Amino acid sequence: MSTVIEEATEPTDLNKNSYKGKIHPDWCPGCGDFSVLAALQKALFELELQPHQVLTVSGIGCSSNLPGFINTYGMHTLHGRGLAVAAGATLANHELKVISTGGDGDGFGIGCNHFIHNMRRNVDLTYLVMDNQIYGLTTGQVSPTSRKGMKTKSSPEGSIENPINPLPLAIVAGATYVARGYSAKQKHLVEIIKGAIMHKGFAFVDVFSPCVTYNKDNTYKWFNPRIKILEDEGHDPTDFHASMDKAYEWGEEIPIGLFWKRDDLPSMDELEPILEEGGPLAYRKLGITEEQGQALIDEIM
Question: What is the pTM assigned to this prediction?
Fold first, then answer.
């Protein structure tokens, strides 16, 4: 599935409905993904980004339906491959604000290789993960972030696997903006997403987005008393060791906010010589005839 906006609007025409998609989200009532979608739309509005300046790309899963619910350029790709397509798009047009969205299974399971290699390359995009710690679309199996001992359809006696912790993984793999949000803290989430979009380099935002249908462990009621905001504690996101320590905290207190940020590492497009001159590749002449170009389009479409 792909989404193309109808027309570009002028900056003065922007309002909170400018990013509302034609299709109403079909998530379960109470799903945290509604709040993440709303936070992303508000972040784009507050940054005064035109819909045609933004591309959203996803893989497969409940949260990966998001490109169909937002008025930007969009593409719904294969399971775990959203980041690969997003990376190609940002190199083809590095003036676009490219946002890849997905879930913990899509990103940390089948798509984990793309997750790691996009971070080490510091590709200039935002990766927004709606982490519900379960496979929701396939009706409730353990995911890479499900807690050890969790009972599900695929682990009726309790999961024997240790969960992945994506935050320290992202920090050591080379991501230059690493943050965590919580769908029930939307105002805070909006600011985190705004920072990620404007960051030059790979920005990773892991969002606790409770699945109200299949995850009966990590609920809003469970998260609410545990959530602590890093910005309220004076955390320094440029301190590597402090960021790693905070990323490993889990229990009676679970931190959210900006864990790690560095601005001294060039993004991949800044290191690619072919992109130094002449602007984005998407705007350059192809070097082929009009007939050849049309033949390629006809074959693909």
Answer: 0.92
